[in-house]
Amino acid sequence: MDKFVKLTGVAAPMPVVNVDTDMIIPKDYLKTIKRTGLGKGLFAEARYLEDGSPNPDFVLNKPAYQDAKILVAGDNFGCGSSREHAPWALLDFGIRCVISTSFADIFYNNCFKNGILPIVVTQEQLDLLMDDASRGSNAILTIDLENQEITGPDGGSIRFEVDAFRRHCLLNGLDDIGLTLEKGNSINTFEKAREAARPWA
User: Fold this and answer.
1) Would you give the DSSP letter of residue 70?
2) Residues sharing a CB contact under 8 Å with residue 66, sequence separation 6 or more, in sequence order
3) What does this protein do (predicted)?
4) CB–CB of 117/143 below 8 Å?
5) CA 7 to CA 88: how far, in whole Å?
6) If DSSP codes are grouped into helix, strand and coil, which group holds residue 99?
7) What is the rounded CA–CA span in Å between residue 62 and residue 162?
8) CB distance 11 to 70 below 8 Å
């Protein structure tokens, strides 16, 4: 998993509440278990017209936001079914951070496990960030995970809180497998001792 230390990039505004995982990645794209290639299906039902062409009114199709790395979203983002394909699709598109006033629990947990930082802010703070994100190509935010701070295009900053363990994992690029491998020496020592004590097992 790629480390998340500091991210500077375009923030796309999505002032929609209750964006569920089916909207993030429709069920038609769930036939794969690969984490790559899902970016094309991100928000597919809103992002494409019936003939398959890009919907020019959808935010991520607008030239200023096509390379967005941050999503500023409405309340209760990621609700609905527990599909892990939702953070996979966001990540494959290039989104490394989602900011909202609240997230569905399973989606929130899945983000951390896949290298995406979900940030919870107050409604007042979200309104300020949504205004920043509405500036098109000038909608540049910097997310500093080490100092837990969001800096806007005008230099104003917002502090955010994140669980210390999850922060450690993102800063060091550790998913569940990476965390296990950190204990590799201890696991090997245990296995050797177990084999010596119970060679028949």
Assistant:
1) E
2) 60
3) Catalyzes the isomerization between 2-isopropylmalate and 3-isopropylmalate, via the formation of 2-isopropylmaleate.
4) yes
5) 18
6) strand
7) 31
8) yes
Rounded Cα distance between 48 and 88, Å, is 19
Measured in whole angstroms, the distance separating CA 133 from the mean position of its chain's CA atoms is 17
Of the ranges 5-9, 32-36, 183-187, which one carries the lowest mean pLDDT score?
183-187
Q: Which residue in this structure is represented by tokens 């696991």?
A: 187
Contact 191, 176 (CB under 8 A): no
Tokens of residue 76, six digits: 């209760």
Provide the token pair at 29. 């794209």
Please name the helix (run of DSSP H) or strand (run of DSSP E) that holds residue 13, with its range, or none: strand 6-14
pLDDT tens, position by position, 106-125:
999 999 999 999 999 999 99
- The C-alpha atoms of residue 78 and residue 46 are separated, in whole angstroms, by 16
Structural domains in the chain, CATH included, are 6-174 (3.20.19.10)
Question: Using the 8-state DSSP alphabet, how is residue 134 labeled?
Answer: T
CA separation for the pair 68, 130 (Å, rounded) = 14
30-88 tens-digit pLDDT? 888 888 899 999 999 999 999 999 999 999 999 999 999 999 999 999 999 888 999 99
Estimate to the nearest angstrom the gap between the alpha carbon of 166 and the chain centroid.
13
pTM: 0.89
Q: What does each C-alpha distance from 39 to 10, 44, 64, 131 come to in angstroms? A: 17, 9, 18, 26
pLDDT for 58 equals 98
Task: Read off the amino acid at residue 131.
Answer: D
Residue 169's H or E segment, with its range, is helix 164-172
